[in-house]
Amino acid sequence: MNDEYYMQLAIEEAKKAEKIGEVPIGAIIVKNGEIIASAHNLRETEQRAIAHAEILAIDQACEAMGSWRLEDATLYVTLEPCAMCAGAIVLSRIKRVVFGASDPKGGCAGTLMNLLQESRFNHQTEVVGGVRQEECGRILSDFFRQLRIRKKQKDEKTGEHSK
């Protein structure tokens, strides 16, 4: 199994999120070649700010392992982790993060900043970006394009103007 394979599984998680109207981001955690967690965004569904795919997967993996330390694990996620998720990754001591699309507005694995490899923390994480980047990015851009279209159609029906 390789990074491309596991990223495909994360993409499948992202598609689950999309089907329920969530921002399509998926995450998989692998340890010793075994998938120990899989999750997708549930922020809108649960109305919880912390219900990001990475956080949910980390929580699930900790429960599965019976430990908050995920030292030999790899996290695969379709979008570069934000500051909150990067913090959880560092604190759970995940060894490696592989992400698909970069996030120019919130990426904390090298785009805006790199919290995962910040030397002042007691743990640093190996980072691999751009795995299946085009596909991961396309899922997100298609989702937001459809969201804008639906909003415009709704506004036209109700006579409101988008801001």
Write the layout of secondary structure elements.
Elements: H1 3-19, E1 26-31, E2 34-40, H2 43-46, H3 53-65, E3 73-79, H4 83-91, E4 96-101, E5 126-128, H5 133-158
Parallel strand pairs: 3-4, 4-5
Antiparallel strand pairs: 1-2, 1-3
Helix pairs in contact: 1-5
Catalytic activity: adenosine(34) in tRNA + H2O + H(+) = inosine(34) in tRNA + NH4(+)
Pfam families: MafB19-deam (PF14437)
Cofactor: Zn(2+)
Describe this structure in words.
The mean pLDDT is about 95. The radius of gyration is 16 Å and the shape is elongated. With about 160 residues, the protein is α/β, with parallel strands linked by helices. Strands 2-1-3-4-5 form a 5-stranded mixed beta sheet. It is built from 5 helices and 5 strands, in the order αββααβαββα. The chain is about 40% helix and about 20% strand. Helix 1 (about 5-20) runs parallel beside helix 5.
Helix content: 40-55%
- Shape by Cα distribution: elongated
Low-confidence stretches: none
Class from secondary-structure proportions: alpha/beta
Active site: 54 (proton donor)
Pfam families: MafB19-deam (PF14437)
Domain CMP/dCMP-type deaminase: 1-119
Function: Catalyzes the deamination of adenosine to inosine at the wobble position 34 of tRNA(Arg2).
